[in-house]
Amino acid sequence: MKKLFLAAVIVLWPLAAIPALADTVDLLSIWEADKPNDLGGVDEDGDAAVTDLRVILRNNPRSERALVMLANAYVTSGSQQLADDTFRQVLDINPGNIQAAVPVIKSLLEKQDSDRSEQVIENALVHSPDNEILLSIQAQIKLSNQDIDGGQKIISKIQASGENPAFGHYLSGRALQSQGKYKQAIASYKQALALNPDLTRALENLAHSYGRLDQQDALLDYLQAFSDDHLDNLSAFSIMATVQRQLKDYTAAIATIEQGLQRQDKWVGGYSALAINHISMGNTEAAIDNYKRGLAALPNSNLLKMLLASLYERVRAFADAKALYESVLAENPDHHAVINSLASLLTDQFESKENINRAVALTERFADSDQPFFIDTYAWALVKSGLPQVAEPLFAKATKIAPNVAVIHYHRAIGFKRLGRLDEARQALILAQSNLSDQDPLREAIEFELTSL
Q1: DSSP secondary structure letter of residue 344
Q2: pTM higher than 0.85
Q3: Residue 357 neighbours by CB under 8 Å, 6+ apart
């Protein structure tokens, strides 16, 4: 019954269409990672920073810098909604504040709200008309909306500035790719990579264009040459392995990844890629061994711990999974994905009064979340703790956000049953049943509950 949710990006991406909005969100992530602390980064403990900054803002409530730092402190402490609200407060004071505009744009794009994103950008560009990051985001939004002419005008402006020619070629490639001009797009991506070999998105989209032309062999030749010329760049190995895996040549994919690991044994993505290929071959034991191998090289990698824990759950090694989640949580007590996974284990696999109470305490922060799986985990813990009446409004919210998730409907049905609302329980079970996948282990539990009503 456990639903898995990992806030982690696996290194192997499909060579399907890569939406411009996804590119834009990644671009924003890169910008946020690189921005200096004096522009709003917060290195200290998030909760302590929030307290200190609130004191400062009592005396100067319109301090843009303090508000940006407060918003970043909220991000650090895991309060994303408060962070978004604070960034928007900054934009109310100054629509041209780039440090606030970029996170707000990112949040809107993650919600696929390109119209409001463009409005925020337009407002910011009034104050900073030549800001390259804003222009780049605006161009990619227009391309994603198939406004090719509008996107090309902005790209031409970026190229004319001459400040970042590699990114100009990359955006030109995106425009050509959006029009199905894959050969020309490849040429533009190659120009971008010649100027900036670390522009990974150009390499990924080049691979996509080669894939559209069904020229996998030419792509593999280019990637091998690229990796030979740029010894510190491991992206080519990831993409080569992806192509080989999609061709079901798992042995070649594993050999490619091992080649990358020979160059850099601290390559986290390499170990996860090895595991994925072994799983594709049906060799779960080898996948577990490779995650362990990765942790031997990178003992503090929370990503590898989470991925291994998730795999342990798949093979029902729940105690091993729990130990890894506990390890990550000890280092990062505000890691929402780990809290969600651990709480689900506590309620479903290690059920006791003490563990149920702990699951409630861990997940009560999810009461105001917009993530349906997080909400469901909290609500399910409440049901298990004997509070189905408190859980029901949360289930209602979760099913509204994610109406096609079987496990949420099932949990809600059990809540209805404990409230004595049997007709609603039956309806929820039918909804759960209609959204089951063929091999879903919930099927038997749902059928049992339906016959018992």
Answers
A1: H
A2: no
A3: 385
